[in-house]
Amino acid sequence: MLKIKVPSSSANLGPGFDVFGLALKSIHTTAAPEASNASSALLELQVTISSSQSSSSPLNCEITCAGLGAESLSRAPDGNLITRVALYVLRCHGQHAFPSHTKVHIINGIPLSRGLGSSGAAVVAGVFLGNEVGGFGLSKDRMLDYCLMVERHPDNVAAALYGGFVGSFLRTLDPKDTARKEIPLSEVLPEPAGGEDTGLRVQEPPVGIGSYHKFRWTPEIKALVVIPDFKVDTAKARGVLPLQYSREDAIFNNQRSSLLPVLLSESPPDAAKISEAMRDKMHQPYRQLLVPGLAEVLDNLRPSSHPGLLGICLSGAGPTILALATHNFEAIAQAVIAILQRAQDIQCQWQVLQPAEGGAMVERVG
Ligand SMILES: Nc1ncnc2c1ncn2[C@@H]1O[C@H](COP(=O)(O)OP(=O)(O)OP(=O)(O)O)[C@@H](O)[C@H]1O
Ligand SMILES: N[C@@H](CCO)C(=O)O
After folding, report:
1. Ligand 2 in contact with 238 (CB < 6 A)?
2. Which residues does the UniProt record annotate as the domain GHMP kinase N-terminal (predicted)?
């Protein structure tokens, strides 16, 4: 059996919209009662290819699901995001379907549509799955190209793939490859992905679509996440953003995103500077509409009022709130929850996570 494990991730960290991603995994400290139903913050696939099995499944792949949101995940190999992506990788190599009798058991520990990179993890898991069952031996750098054909902003997928605190950018490609990159998603991943077997090979992604750099992370900085019990669809959260920004707002974010990686690498962390460097004018102000209470959380929680807190932001497209902190996690979490609950009557869970340094990995069991 193969196990493919992919961490959750928090994108943006305030000013680094579509740039920063922090891969996250659970931390096994003494959990407060409120945090006792904490999730693993990990997506795991258990994959077997059984020659003795007699029944045949569509596209040779049988899917079972467990964990968070399992009931909502598609069991159809041409509908489930993970297996659709795997089929895309297989078809780029001339294989229409999975090897006979492939079984994929999905154990999802990442809450769906909460801003913790569930879709990025699913895309990375799908590329790993296609690579493993096809035996293609793709490098992680090449796998990033495949991921970026599906999820067009690099922050979550780069963090989930490489692990740790990562900055990434999309490269300017030559006109021929730009045309490839700009093709509609529905052509890369037709839905359903099965379609007619035309015998044609799907075109592989251009090489080197994106680049990344892994920054140092000071180990005493932990990631406290407060996860409200409602979903924000990333496509919708991108839809509320303006197409153009003022020079003032662009400079505001540039100034902060340029300094943030250095500030998060220093020990002891400088809370006053980090708090200011995590402010943003490109996405959070517009997403307040989708996350009631967000503006008040960002305005009211400061290192001066909440010892241990370094900085606070929306995690990815939300609605999760990410607080970077060194201690005093419960008090910070309860302060965030109180504000969110004043804004609307919702339940929240909270959890302390830490960087998942290794990123996505494959284990061979037995
Ligand atoms: N384990 C999974 N298996 C199959 N599909 C998944 C899985 N995880 C996520 N998805 C798909 O991704 C969708 C969620 O993607 P969306 O971009 O809205 O949220 P997110 O990735 O959790 O948030 P963010 O991008 O802000 O971090 C789900 O509705 C589902 O279609
Ligand atoms: N950078 C992305 C992350 C969410 O997937 C966004 O904020 O829209």
Report:
1. yes
2. 80-164
174 and 258 share one domain = no
Give, for ligand 1, the residue of 39, 61, 81, 119 to mutate: max count of ligand atoms closer than 8 Å to Cβ. Answer: 119
pLDDT at 189 over 90: no
- Tell me the CA distances in angstroms from 50 to 83, 96, 108, 267, one per residue in order: 17, 19, 23, 51
pLDDT exceeding 70 applies to what percent of the chain? 90
Q: How confident is the model over 102-126, as pLDDT tens digits?
A: 999 999 999 999 999 999 999 999 9
Question: Tokens for 236?
Answer: 């919708």
Pair (250, 336) in one structural domain: yes
pLDDT at 53: 58
Residue 364 within a domain:
no
253 with 162, same domain: the answer is: no
Check residue 193 and give its pLDDT.
62
Q: How far is the CA of 119 from the centre of ligand 1 (A)?
A: 3
Residues 142 and 261 in one domain: no
The verdict on 328 and 266 lying in the same domain is yes
Domain membership of residue 99 (yes or no) is yes
Query: 268: cis peptide before it, omega within 30°?
Result: yes
Read off the CATH number of the domain in which 11 is found.
3.30.230.10
Residue where a domain stops, chosen among 212, 231, 253: 212
Domain boundary among 188, 212, 236: 212
pLDDT score recorded for residue 6: 98
Q: Does residue 23 line the site of ligand 1, with CB under 6 A?
A: no
* pLDDT at residue 59 is higher than 70: yes
144 and 278: one domain?
A: no
For 163-173, write each residue's pLDDT tens digit. 999 999 998 87
Ligand 1: nearest atom to the Cα of 112: 22
Q: Whose CA is nearest to atom 8 of ligand 2?
A: 317
